Amino acid sequence: MDKVLPDFENLKVSAFSKYTKLTGDINNVTIGPNSVGHQNCSYDGTKPKSNTKKVSFKKEQTTSTSPLPLTYVLKEFETQRREKVQEAIDDRFSKFENFTKRQKEEKETQWLLKQQAFVQSVQENEQTILQTISQQDVNRSKQNEKLIKQYQDMIQRKLQYEQQLEKNKEKQRILNENIEKIKKYQLEFKSVYQEIIVVIKTCTSTEELKKMLGEHFKLLKSLPESFDEVISRCKSYSVDEEQLSKAANILIKSKNLKLQIEETISKINAKKKEEQVQVQVPVTVEVPKNTSAQKHLDETKNTLVGLNQCVSINNLKKYADIKQFLSQYSSLFKELLNDEQQKQYRFDCKKAVNIPVNAISAVSSEHLRDKYTKLNNLLSGKTVAIADKHINAAKQPQGIPFCMDLLAKKFVLQGDLMISSNPEAAFCYATIIISLWNDFPDFGKLLLGYFYTQCPYLVPFYIPKTEDHTNEEYYISLGYHYVDGQIEKQDKFLKRMTGILRLYFAIMIAHPKRDQAKNPHDIKNAWNFLASILKLDPQLDITATSLHIFLETVGFEMERVYGLAFKKVVRIIINKFMPLLKKIDTGGPVTRLEVLLQNYKVKGYFEKPHGILTPNFW
User: 462 pairs with which residues across the strands?
Assistant: First the structure.
């Protein structure tokens, strides 16, 4: 307002100045009783002397309009004043608004700047923090890498130390294993050597034996000396693979020497016996050529010649002995079989045999041990819990022989039913079988009896047909089944035979439970089987099947035990036996055998069969 009032005074001065210009020079009083016009009218009524017209004009204007201009002026003045004041106020208000606006804008600008500065500061702080954190991470990462490297170095040194320990342990383990193997070889060598001495004593002419064997006979003295050298290395703990191989080769040589001596002695004794017969017959009786005695002698010779093509004399004797034992053993429980009052007891015994045998598998060592314990307890006359019953075979005097016979028969049947479809199961059955065989020798003989009954090719024996045999009797003796008078198909027969063959061959290489040291029907029987079957005339289907299952199951172990000797036999099979076999047989069994032998030629070895158990599995 202080600025408005001077403007107002200026406005007044301006207004009056303009008014003066409009009214001319006014020296007299124009308003009121003292005005010039009033005096003239009241006293003498004369007109002014000078400038009458002008005064008169002014007077006329004054009298007629003088009140109006001032009011008007004042009014105008007031209006203008108000307008000026309003304009001043509006201007002032506008200034205030502009000032306020500017203040607001400045504050907003300052706030925005401060905000931007704050954000920038925050960002810079964040960036600084991130850089600091990043640097710390880098430093920490470097420290971690350094620590990790230190730890890795420590671990590496530890691993190297442990590896060195493991290597030392492995060397010690291998050394111990080699020593144990050599000990086993030594025991086996002593056994073979004693058998050789016993066999030599059966020879009717030792001089002729020495002459026929030649340099081989001298091995009898050199082999023990060579083995003693290996044993001395064992005592000084300087045994390596070379010594182990040397011991194995000595054992193989002794076995081969034994076979050669046996064959040579057999020839010498047979020749001696023929000479004795030729000497004795003319002295005792003169037999005319056409008599019945001469005819019977010729028939006997022909029969023996025919048998030699089907089975060896030694194997035939073994076969006859086992079959005789089987027949005699069945008489031990004949009364129990015929007693109708013991029907439930027989049924319980069958359950005690069938349930554990059917459950045998290699799922775990504890599982195998449990099944073995139940069967061992049953044959030992102890009470066993089967399902919801407690069964004791010794409850009846003939119970244990009955159960033993059932068990042997059941195992062979498992080869027929189970292993023919699941070959890997052969080894878990085999390890139980040889463990029980160690405990009960008669069980092993019964088992062989049922093996030879169901599959005479295990002897090996190709049973010839005689005039007394009907076709059905003959084929049953060969292992075929008859259903409603009809013989089973060949493919089904061969499948059953593969199961029985595989179980029998698995027994030869199976390991018993840990506390038993030996296999009662070990790899020596495999060598005898192979040597025997190669000497016989091959038969359709079954010869190829037997050889194929044999090599597939025990080929790898034969090579490990007999080494070069076995490799020579395999070459004989490939180069000499297979051509003979192909002359009579070109079917599936021969093809499968040929494929197996071709794979052997490519790889140089037979693979381990699936399912074989480790020596200390249970």
Answer: none
